[in-house]
């Protein structure tokens, strides 16, 4: 008779890295989204590439589903396992394996924290561009799963534009080398397919990323507005003028006040309806040239002031306010749903009016802090999850905001992923055939559907594609 | 058989079917639905299909029961300058799109080799980016969403028309550089770029070594360039093209920096016409190959091409890496080179060649661990009966 699962896993990783006690398992019951909770059957923390492969092979033999997890900072309930599935946190695989300064490449294990990679690259004059707000905690492996973004993805693109090769293990325990160090694939673009597959195609054991040279010059501007609409119109005007800033972020009054009342106070004017944080980078000449275009646009759209960060310290402070905004809001409400949706940039003014209207009708506090340049909204709904009636209202308001974004030509998630949270919204934007095709592609990677089962694609749509498809 | 086929196809696409040069039916659908219906009929009947674009890049020479040309599926459905997005059908040409976008002071972030009469579908299916990839990334970064038709006629959508989107798996990625093996790209949402106010060009001629070192010095100094490409129509004579762009002042200052750092004599030139001339030359011989090589290894890899395949035209991307070669090799020599490059972890992709060559070599080969079975299984999703004539792996790898 086979050994119990716990014992067999312990034989691979060592007993201390198999978490079976209820209290230990409960620490993994949620990610960064408070609306979904699910306690895993157990958690196993492999410490090396070979241990991950051995764990996946064992689970394949036993027919047990599993969920890979990074730092658990995700915002879609994507990295949650349940009573039937095993959670595989990859945080122990946290080595930067190599940095090639001339080729501008790094090879990292999946558990490397995002910000650590840029720190390690800095002595070579390089950095890793994708910068989610959670970058001080989130891992590169998690970023790969979610195709994570961040403020600077406006100019530099999301994770998928920065990953050139992946060493992966599939759910059946086989390994595959996708992509190449230069980025040209050895076949079709399987890296492009894998990035953003939300942990349902396999586990990335090694990630080769492109590093960018640190910009010669950076200029960070803070423009404050007395109306949200003028701020969003300024965003459209900047893009239409042919300038794509490194970042272009909007922070509204509710959010400004939360930030300014916290230890992350950034000096945002608390009487402003909204501020825009605009970052220009590149050569000195390019930055000066773009500033000469952007500054008059901001003023013409009614900015009361346009402040330029004087030094690196002030720049860091302005950014800290933005990046810690979610944390700051955590101080003023017990729970916070960080929503994520995208609209065409030109639809921003109208959609923000809609969000204000939804907040009023559902009697909710919604604060906005988001990637305005991408049209990537983050309405933050402040509430108390202990109140079921309030929680139900939050869910209805979220759905209405999503529907409005889709109706405006947008989408239900720009960077947080579908996970568990948005699975029911998928049919708002994709027909059954397209969803069924996605299922079929997933089965090409994981025919037994053991990797992160039940996420992203509504189960009932998976039946529509032809069976297996092999002639 | 052909008579019955014609009758069946006429039921679907009316008069948009004719007899092609190979005496087989050639369908020219005018809508995505008609394209889907034609492929659906082929799928039902088990007919093999050749997909044709403009025929300027890849000759429509794959043997099949019928051809489907995208030349009438050529609408530019929308251009939204303020949102930086255009929606385009696969048969629209690069020339047609560039003309339309210029009216909005916009452009796409790719400038593919070959004729400007190449179709968008061809450029995407072959992932043939040009030197603008230095600034804007590979062509996959320009594709926001797509509607594709699977070999059985099913329409599959992924992505969307906004610049940031992670809803569902990114099925569009597998189409880019998939050579049509994973479905036919019917309609796409493309990311646009604003035309810069000014462009400045530096052109230098000479031997590879000094020009390559000049290019690498410019890259190492992070000069803000949009193009930094080395060309040779007749090695050992090389041309380095450097373009800066942005505001008038910005482009000029960066041009001056590039000039100073490079330390080679430059002449004035027009980067666009130079790039296009060299790009068009990439179809003057029957075979075009590309290699995924990091910048530091470009010169020795270029030597390896010349040594293995004989004379050919070359272009080297000094910033991002990557090499393109056009010449008249034998398939055996090209496959031998593929294996030599694979030993150096450099993938070699066959971009274009006559059908017999493609069948022998395959667009892809020398697969790394696990890639071939994954590729096969994904292809099973979109074309399980292998009805679309694509020499993805070729006989040698089969």
What characteristics describe this protein?
heterodimer, A: 471 residues, alpha+beta, 7-stranded antiparallel sheet, 5-stranded antiparallel sheet, 16 helices, 20 strands, 20% strand, globular, B: 398 residues, 8-stranded antiparallel sheet, 6-stranded antiparallel sheet, 13 helices
Model regions low in confidence, pLDDT < 50 over at least 5 residues of chain B: none
Count of strand segments of chain A: 20
**What is the average of the pLDDT values of chain A?**
95
Kindly report how far apart the N and C termini of chain B lie. Answer: 30 Å
The chain pair with the largest interface is: A-B, 98 and 88 residues
Set down the secondary structure blueprint.
The complex is a heterodimer of chains A (471) and B (398).
Chain A: H1 5-13, E1 18-19, H2 22-26, E2 42-44, H3 49-62, E3 66-69, E4 86-89, E5 96-100, E6 105-108, H4 114-121, E7 126-127, H5 140-146, H6 153-156, E8 163-169, E9 175-179, H7 190-194, E10 203-210, E11 212-213, E12 217-225, H8 228-240, E13 247-252, H9 253-260, E14 274-282, H10 284-300, E15 305-308, H11 312-323, H12 325-332, E16 335-338, E17 341-342, H13 348-361, E18 365-370, E19 376-377, E20 379-383, H14 388-407, H15 426-429, H16 432-445
Parallel strand pairs in A: 2-4, 3-4
Antiparallel strand pairs in A: 1-2, 5-6, 6-10, 7-11, 8-9, 8-10, 12-14, 12-15, 13-14, 13-18, 16-20, 17-19, 18-20
Helix pairs in contact in A: 1-3, 8-10, 8-13, 9-12, 11-12, 13-14
Chain B: H1 2-13, E1 17-19, E2 25-27, H2 32-45, E3 49-52, E4 66-69, E5 76-80, E6 85-89, H3 94-102, E7 106-108, H4 120-126, H5 133-136, E8 143-149, E9 155-159, H6 172-175, E10 184-194, E11 198-206, H7 208-220, E12 227-234, E13 237-246, H8 248-262, E14 267-268, H9 271-280, E15 287-291, H10 298-309, E16 312-317, E17 323-327, H11 331-342, E18 348-352, H12 355-361, H13 371-382
Parallel strand pairs in B: 2-4, 3-4
Antiparallel strand pairs in B: 1-2, 5-6, 6-10, 7-10, 8-9, 8-10, 11-13, 11-14, 12-13, 12-16, 15-17, 15-18, 16-17
Helix pairs in contact in B: 1-2, 7-8, 10-11, 11-12
